[in-house]
Write a structure and sequence with these properties.
The protein is an all-alpha fold and 448 residues long.
Length: 448
């Protein structure tokens, strides 16, 4: 690989890292570490698979299928791309935007002024100001966003690198015994809350287009560049998430597992670096969340314009995004996580199924295998989402009889109930289409 190719791999890899690394995700690894305690190594493995490997693999999967979200969804059904994009808009609108704002204010701005924490009226006023800035900088774009985005990620990464180094060299304490029965399953499922598998499928085309623009139009060279860039992004995310998880593990004997996740992050940073550390990291988190919200808010608005055929104007949709995000963010980060975790649970199986099918597309015999796999993963995911609603105390749906059936599915107790049904769907779908004969991929015939 030439020097220029290595440079391209680093640049694209850091871009992938920057997109998948959201400051709103920083609240999850410390709690996972706190709950995992002395089994923090196993926890890192579980988190690395669901929150790092799978999201990064979506880029490779989409690249294998042609480089666009349309191409990876095409074997399922012609309407599936549109449906998936609608689902993605709802997902980011309800889970991403409000959480970014909540973390930006609670773990960001208010950690700079700790004496003001606990004042709900002030928090709501700051959220209103946050979304006003988002709306202004989105409807009337400014170089401010580019400047902050360009220099912010390196600044925040330096802060995190210093903090992680201190956690390793001067640990807060000795990790205690795990507070969960199955550490791997717990950390794997908690990794769903980053939402990055669904995000990866939606935005992978952007990275593929960037790689092509650099001259890697030959499929073999493009695949190689994509893989190398993905490795760079994977290592960056592993260092950040793994380091924060280990920090939480070292504080497992100091903090209560029932603490609010933002309060836990702030407390760990304060114990490690003092007030100065809270202030520096808080500013970085606030600005990172702000620029991320501007980015995903604009994406939601643009996708809505496209899906509506221009009937819904960009500015109108941005106003709605900000108003809806503001309303939901008022319940606080902990409340947002409680009320939206079921959405992560519901959409992740189908997103993982798409990622696996795309990553290993050369071994998938026909479109029936895609249809069967996605159908079963969707059914299991939706049911698990309903169960999570009950477990969170949000609903009291009569699911007892169905839960008994669900519990008979292999690996259900570990959170992997979707695996065997998806494999069965793969086999049945493939066999049915093969028996029917004809082109195994008629919807892709023009590209073959």
């Amino acid at each position: 690989m030439s020097k220029n190719a290595n440079t391209s791999a680093l640049i694209i890899g850091f871009a992938m890292f920057a997109v998948f690394f959201g400051a709103g995700n920083l609240v999850f690894p410390p709690l996972i570490g706190l709950m995992s305690g002395s089994s923090w190594g196993i926890a890192i493995l579980g988190l690395a698979i669901s929150a790092i490997l799978f999201p990064i693999a979506t880029i490779i999967a989409v690249d294998n299928m042609g480089g666009t979200i349309q191409s990876i969804c095409a074997p399922v059904a012609s309407w599936f791309t549109r449906g998936y994009m609608v689902m993605w808009i709802i997902f980011i609108l309800t889970c991403g935007v409000p959480r970014q704002a909540g973390v930006g204010i609670e773990s960001g701005l208010l950690s700079v002024f700790p004496s003001l924490q606990g004042n709900d009226m002030l928090r709501i006023a700051l959220l209103a100001g946050y979304f006003l800035v988002v709306l202004i900088l989105t409807v009337r774009p400014s170089k401010i966003v580019d400047i902050v985005g360009k220099y912010l990620t390196p600044f925040l990464l330096v802060c995190l690198a210093v903090m992680i180094a201190l956690a390793v060299l001067q640990p807060l304490g000795t990790p205690m015994a795990p507070q969960v029965d199955n550490v791997f399953s717990y950390s794997f499922l908690q990794g769903y809350q980053t939402g990055d598998v669904a995000v990866g499928i939606a935005i992978a085309g952007m990275f593929i287009a960037s790689i092509k623009a650099r001259g890697y139009t030959d499929p073999a060279l493009r695949h190689k560049m994509t893989l190398k860039a993905a490795i760079v992004a994977f290592l960056g995310l592993l260092i950040v998430y793994g380091g924060l998880l280990y920090l939480g593990a070292t504080g497992s004997g100091m903090f209560d597992a029932k603490m609010d996740q933002t309060a836990l992050l702030n407390s760990l940073v304060h114990a490690l670096t003092g007030t100065a550390g809270n202030m520096i990291l808080g500013i970085g988190i606030f600005l990172a969340c702000l620029t991320t919200t501007i980015g995903v808010g604009s994406t939601i608005a643009n996708l809505t314009v496209d899906l509506s055929g221009g009937k819904i104007p960009f500015n109108y949709m941005m106003v709605f995004v900000c108003l809806f995000g503001m309303a939901e963010a008022c319940i606080g980060v902990q409340g947002i996580i409680r009320y939206t975790f079921w959405i992560f649970i519901a959409i992740y199986p189908v997103s993982i199924a798409l990622m696996i099918l795309g990553a290993f597309c050369r071994y998938v015999p026909n479109h029936g295998a895609w249809k069967g796999t996605v159908a079963m993963a969707t059914i299991i995911g939706l049911f698990e989402g309903l169960m999570q609603l009950n477990e969170s105390g949000i609903t009291a749906l009569p699911l007892d009889s169905l839960i008994q059936v669900y519990n008979c599915i292999p690996f259900a107790s570990s959170g992997f109930a979707w695996v065997i049904p998806s494999v069965i769907g793969f086999i049945f779908g493939a066999v049915i289409v093969r028996m029917q004969g004809g082109n195994p991929y008629p919807m892709l015939s023009e590209d073959k």
